[in-house]
Amino acid sequence: MDRPPGYAPFRQTLETVGDHQLPVVRRGPVGTPGEPLVVFAQPLFEELNRCRRLTADIGDALAALGIESACPDLPRTGNHADGRPFDMEIAVAALNAFLAAQTDRRLLVLSLRGGALLVPPDEPHLAIAPVRRGERLLTDLKRTQQVGDAERTGGAAKTETKTRWAAGEAVHLAGYVVTAATARALSAARLNQSIGADDEIAATIPPVWRQADPVRARDAARRIAALAQARLS
């Protein structure tokens, strides 16, 4: 790809927003007030890791168009080696604080998959292959857990999530701690009806969020970047 003046391939920062210090990957020219900025709302749970390469490719394609992007790692959304549970309220608050800190920039939030559920309704937003109902993510986690349990035991296995959540218990699903409050929040989460997904692009993206190994989708990344550029014009 041709690189515009000021292009920087990769800048990783630790930015204080609200009560959080967020690791942020920035690509493209260093923006100034009035210049556009695309902020990624990444997928949730394991889909976040599986989409990192696609996110990087989209950021690279945006940079080639002279557009800066910022990809914050929101708290309580991806890896939780410390055992802390996913927390939708914390993630939404952190994204709100990050967006509010980008003063005097023309913002566009670009979400992938479950990240669309975190975006405030009043933010300009391009949703790619969004999860429209949060309960779908819970279903995916439960299925992954059941497959793992069956492999370990050699037979059918079922995790009694509803009963345990009803009792206020946290449940470990596919490596994540899902509390009763999280289950309620995800079950109630819906994609904002004012947000339109780009179905044509979504249909041509390889389902990298389902792949165990990273998959490149550079052509799709370029189309998404061009669509973002059009939205910012």
How would you describe this protein?
The chain has helices at residues 46-50, 52-64, 88-101, 135-153, 161-166, 180-188, 199-204, 218-232, and strands at 11-17, 20-27, 36-41, 68-72, 106-112, 125-128, 171-173, 176-178. It has eight helices and eight strands. The protein has 233 residues and is of the alpha/beta class. The protein starts with 10 loop residues before the first strand and ends with a helix. A six-stranded mixed beta sheet has the order 1-2-4-3-5-6. Helix 2 crosses helix 8 and helix 4 (135-153) packs across helix 6 (180-188).
Q: Termini distance? A: 21 Å
Report the helical percentage.
25-40%
Quote the average pLDDT: 85
Instruction: Tally the helices.
Output: 8
Strand share of the residues? Answer: 15-25%
Low-confidence stretches: none
Radius of gyration: 18 Å
Indicate the structural class.
alpha/beta
User: For the largest beta sheet, what order do the strands appear in spatially?
Assistant: 1-2-4-3-5-6
Order of helices and strands: EEEHHEHEEHHEEHHH
How many β-strand runs?
A: 8
Overall 3D geometry?
globular
